[in-house]
Each structure stands twice: as structure tokens, then as C-alpha cells.
Amino acid sequence: MSNWRDEKAKANAQALARLSKRLPDAFPQAVLVRARNCSWAPATLRVAIDGYWRAHPLRADRLARALAARSGAPERWRWQVGGDPDSGLPSSFRVPPAPYRQKAFSKGDGFCCVCGQPVYRFGWHADLWDVGPNKNATWHSACVVAWQLWNAPSAHAKLLRKLQGRRCRETNRRLLKTSEVDHQVPLFQVWRQHRDAPWPELLGYWGLPNLQVINREVHVAKCADEAKGRSAARVAAPSESPPA
Fold first, then answer.
1. CB atoms inside a 10 Å sphere around CB 47
2. Is 16 a residue whose pLDDT tops 60?
3. Handedness of CA 235, 239, 241, 244 (dihedral sign)
4. Least confident range of 2-11, 43-52, 140-149
5. DSSP for the chain?
6. CA dist., res. 205 & res. 188, Å (int)
7. b/e for 201-218, b at 16 or more Cβ within 10 A?
8. Mean pLDDT along residues 35-57
9. Beta-strand relationship, 211-214 and 180-183
10. Tens digit of each residue's pLDDT (9 = 90 or more) over 135-175
């Protein structure tokens, strides 16, 4: 055990030495502080930045939505699903809308395919080095983590439970081990009722503002009520339509 600890300390010292040797004059201090306090120090600056955002997915979510709001939706873009996969259209309404991932609206190399803003050195979202966009990158490091959160929020259930004080959002009772991540506004309802909302606002339905952790039995009852509502809406739709 003592040999393992010695080897770990030696490896961390070597990694930090390489990191310091490559450190530019300008670098995000929060990333550097975390890298120096990691159990295993990152060997490169890019890995340090990626690790920072993986450790802070909710910050990545807020930043990605803020960058998307700065870009805005392209002209003539409209949220659509089920198109040709090669065109970049999502296959389902459960996938977050991302116009800049579509070939028709892509900005090309050097711009993030999620938020549409320029990608700079190390995948950072601001040009701290005054060298312009990185033409070899099409993702911000923060947007990668945000995209993973939007598509698989259950992977961050532990963090969300802690954020809620380990209380069920629906009943305010203690969260059990079987608790599950849920969208407060169901995604099918977003597709039906909020489809024409501005694109940056739509991303909030996949991000933290629309996420909650609830106990499993509450989640099952909520899903059953939603299914009944969808069924009733399908039955009522023909009768409410005007006659031909």
C-alpha cells in the first residue's frame, strides 16, 4: 500500500510538472485549481478543462444555454424531427433541438455545433489567448457535458438529489434509493404545445430548470396521468375538428 501511494504521488508530481511547463500566460484559474487538487492530476491542459466541466455539469448546462441565447436560431429554422439522419435532424422529440448540428445551418469548423458560438483553444468558450477560433474543433468542452446531461439526465441523479436536499420535488418526502429523474414538463408536451417557442428557450426544457428527482411510485403515478391525458386528447381531437 505504501508503495502504491508513493507511486501515485510521483505520477501526480510528474503530471503537474508537465502541466505547469505547458501552461500559457492566460488560463482559467478555476480549472487550474481543480487540476491541482485532483486525486489523479491531468497530464494535459485539454484534459484538465474537460475534467473541470465533467465535475460541474450544471454549470456546463447554464453556460451552453447562455451561449445558445447569444447565437439565437438561424433564419428559416424550425424544430423538426424524423427527417433524414444524414441531414442532422433528430429522430425523436426527446432529442434536444440543435439547429447548428444540421447540415443546412452548420457554421463549419471553429464553431460549436450545439450553441453556434466560436470554439477557442482547448475547447474554451472565450478567446483568452487572442488567437481566434480553433479550426480543428466543433464542440465546446462545456457543451459536450451539457449535451450529455440533456440526453441522459439520469446519469446525474446523485447530483440532482443533493441539489434538492434529498427531498422529493412532488411530495417533499425523503428521496428513496429507487428515486428517478423526471422532466417536470413532459417532453411530448413540449413538442405539442411549445414547438414554436424560441430555440434557446426550448433548451431549458432539457436542462436544469425542467429536471426534478421524485420517488419511483410518484413517477409511475405521474406517467400514468400523463398517458391518460394523451389518450383523452387523441379521442377528443376528431370530435373537436370542424366538419369537412
1. 15
2. yes
3. positive
4. 2-11
5. -HHHHHHHHHHHHHHHHHHHHT--SS--HHHHHHHHHSSS--SSHHHHHHHHHHH-HHHHHHHHHHHHHHH-PPTT-----SS-GGGT--SSTTSPP-GGGSTTT---TTB-TTT-PBP-GGG-SS-SSS----TT--S-HHHHHHHHHHH-GGGGHHHHHHHTTTB-TTT-PBPPTT-EEEESS-HHHHHHHSTTS-HHHHGGGTSGGGEEEE-HHHHHHHHHHHHHHHHHHHHHHHHHSPP-
6. 11
7. ebbbbbbbebbbbbbeeb
8. 93
9. antiparallel
10. 999 999 999 999 999 999 999 999 999 999 999 999 999 99
Asked if residue 243 has pLDDT above 70, the reply is no
Give the separation between CA 214 and CA 161, rounded to whole angstroms: 9
Contact 123, 140 (CB under 8 A): yes
Residue among 213, 93, 214, 205 nearest 150 (CA): 205
Cβ 126 vs Cβ 141: under 8 Å: no
Q: How far is the C-alpha of 202 from the C-alpha of 238, rounded, in Å?
A: 29
C-alpha separations of 231 from 96, 217, 227, 236, 241 in Å:
24, 21, 6, 9, 16
Residue type, 87: S
Residue 49 to residue 16: CA distance in whole angstroms:
14
Instruction: Return the C-alpha cell found at 117.
Output: 458560438
DSSP classification of residue 111: B
Of the candidates 21, 24, 19, 22, the residue with the CA atom closest to the CA atom of residue 34: 19
- Given CA atoms 8, 14, 15, 17 in this order, what sign does their dihedral have? positive
* pTM exceeds 0.85: yes
